[in-house]
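hiii so my PI (J.) wants the whole complex modelled not just the main chain, which honestly fair. so below is everything: two entries, each one labled with what it is. i double checked the lines twice but i was tired so who knows lol
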Amino acid sequence: MNTPLRRVGMAMMVMILLLLGNATWVQVINADEWRKNAYNRRVLLDEYARKRGLITVADGTVIADVKETTDRLRYLRTYNSGQAYAPVTGYLSVTYGTSGMERAENDLLNGSDDRLLTRRISALITGRDPVGGNVQLTLNSKVQQTAYDQLTAKGFTGSVVAIKPDTGEILAMASTPSYDPNLLASHDVNEQAAAWKQLTAKDSGDPLVNRATQALYPAGSTLKVLVAAAALADGKNKDTQYTAKGSITLPGSQTPLPNFNGTPCGPGETVSMETALAKSCNTAFGEMAGQLGANKLRRQAEKFGFNDPDLTVPLVVETSTLGPIPDDAALYQTGIGQRDVQITPLENAVIAATIANNGKRMQPYLVSKILGPDLKSIDDTEPDQVETAMSTANANALRDMMIQSEVNTGGEGRLQNVQVASKTGTAEHGSDVTKFNPHAWYIAFAPAQKPEIAIAVIVEDGGDRGLGATGGKVAAPIGRAVMNAYLAGR
Amino acid sequence: MGSPVPAGEGSPGASAATNTSPGLKAPTRRGTELVMLSFAAGLVTLALILVELNQERSLSLRILYLGLAYLGLFACAHLAVRRWAPYADPAILPCVALLNGLGLVVIHRIDLALEGTVFPDGSTWDPVAFKQVIWTGIGLLMFAATLKFLPDHRMLARFGYTFGLVGLVALLLPGVLPGFIAPTINGAKIWLRIGPLSLQPGEFAKILLMVFFAAFLVSKRDLFTVAGRRFLGMDLPRARDLGPLFAAWGVTVAVMVLQKDLGSSLLFFGIVLVLLYIATERAAWVVLGLGLFAGGAVIAWKLFNHVQQRVANWQDPIARYDMIGGGYQISQSLFGLATGGIGGAGLGAGRPEMIPEANTDFITAVIGEELGFVGFAALLLVYMVFALRGLRGAISVRDSFGKLLGGGLAFAVCFQVFIVVGGVTKLIPMTGITAPFLSYGGSSLLANYILVALLLRISAAARAPQRVAKPKPQQPAIADQHTVMVERPK
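here's the output for the full assembly
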């Protein structure tokens, strides 16, 4: 009987080997597939079991807090003034993952970032729970709240970005419609699901999109400052003459390029660059772009931060572009910020800030400090000049032209005793300009001689003015209020 | 404590052993056993300390006392072996001690995880680790009693038919009894409830039936080896000799239908097949048996919903994740194993509360998650060492009944591990069966301790020096004897 017994022994070893082989497959080779399966909550729960770090604004006000709970997830994320800050903080949801700063700084907030290594080890030794690091933002609570209130007061869909020109600190980043991230952070799965369904519904207006960084718009007339900068760099000055016609025909086609309402730019045949910018004359800037050519325009755009797909603040920023510009007609249209020009509100604010900072472009950023769980600073963000986009002289010349532009701009809420440099835009979009209300733009900085804040405002689809909307009427009052909030609170 | 005792010292068996060659007395290896038992107790204590640390409970000397008490418990078992089976295999009991101890630690760890859980019916989790400790004590008592009252395993053969009848009744009883005494728990009707006590008679029936089959096959062995027709190069058994195989098959199907216990029916049928194979040395039996089983399995799959569910859950657990009776459990098991990865989450740091039935059928998944692939592989190897040592006893024992019973018992443990671990790791469909010595459950533990006692008894018989049945009459030296003429018989 020993032969069959030995064979049974072999069979037993084969069975154990099969189990070992299968365990190798499940636990080692194919482990990632099971580990990362959407149903596998273990990794997420481990993160939740740690006390997540806080997100604060510049003055220390906590906008993303944690509360200890009695349920399985141990810590509940809570957001203060959630609606105003949601585009920046994003949300943290067991079911729907993360977005915004919660995603961009997730490793740091949940404590797994390498910069927290020594603290993790000491927590291990002392037996305390490892805790996430804290993120302090550059946001100014007053400016942010003003931006959000201004946009929501009339129910606008749009965005405001404010930047401190000499450092690149982002002082405000608002986007509407917004949402309450507390609903998605809820530990009640049903409440989460209901909120998610509502926020992602077709008619919800995409509240989960941070328009400041993720939405691309036609730049409209605000792009004229970029064209002017390119012309100045090309040796032109504020007195260089361009056509004053009410309408020109695009080269190589029958399509007209008219001024706003077809009005001529001046009494004479030609008009200076300064006047053309102040009155936002399409014909003059079409001609200016045509004279410069696509390459010079593009080079200037890149100096201002266009075509940078890797830009993070650390929120991921969509890439602003001038488009392909295939022919002269397209070049003329690009010169007035139409055709294929696509720009984020953040990039438009960067253009304003760069002009304000004597042509030096600073890297925009949202995180001013990384703090350890003990609130000691681990990492301070240093302002970083990435490019000299314009010479100081040209920047000052452009600033003076923008001061004239502000003088010519209507709208309410002009700042008292503070000189503002600005440019408005009324960007057409959609297939039929008589049906789609234009987007209203306003970029500005103040005080013009010693700028402390640069802003970009966009209000989608004409705001409350419909087809008659212009940047000056709809967007400028918001921008002025935001700048005022900062300058008054200094 | 722990130093090897000189071979044969203080063991009554040794002195009663052969006196023909006193210089070649076989070592009992009891000292080795004690050293390995201490090692196992040390590992178990370490495991308990890790659990308490990772669960952030205060460490006290109590743990050390628990570890010493555990060692004491097995030292008693060791003394029983020393007293009643001194030549037993020294590796088997330490393997059991390690498995049982790890099982206790993990059951305690799952108690901690489920502490305070309120179930949908309003009841709360009732800790079971202490009950399992009591069961371990009773199991060891049964173990010692078996060794004491069964000095020779061949005694069992005499009661073969009685055992067979009792075993059959015990196996089928829960299936035919009404629900108030034999309730359906988790879909399987394998329990008897007598007062506060729950019993799983099938666990004991497994051993009783093995004794019966071994005795039956040994007595009728010659019949089965009579060749029937030759077919495809195999000697087929005669039709009338197929009776026992068909009977076993019938019982298997009955268990599957009446009790919905796939695991037990698979285990039972596998054991019968292997016993038949060892007894007859004919592969034809195995082929025939597998054919029968395959046919039965296909029919069962076609007829029974619960079989179809198990197979579908095995094919794609994720697709059936949310269904009732779907892939949730097996998915959680795989998530746990994969998240544990190579090194594991650490004892006490995994999430066993997410796996239903974590302390019984899925206890190996918890071990795989917390100890990782390394610990999981070690666990499987301990099982393999246990089964192979048992098989070794069967190979070296001299009587056919001992060979058959020993081979069957060793295979039974290994096959049971294959069924349950294969199910947990998605190698084969999940069938629901306990992991020997690890899973929570009194019946399983008691039955398996009896099984260990039998294996030790058989290995002791194999390793003990051959006793001389009748003392040979003293013969004078050969030189002194007369020369006798021997005639060739005509």
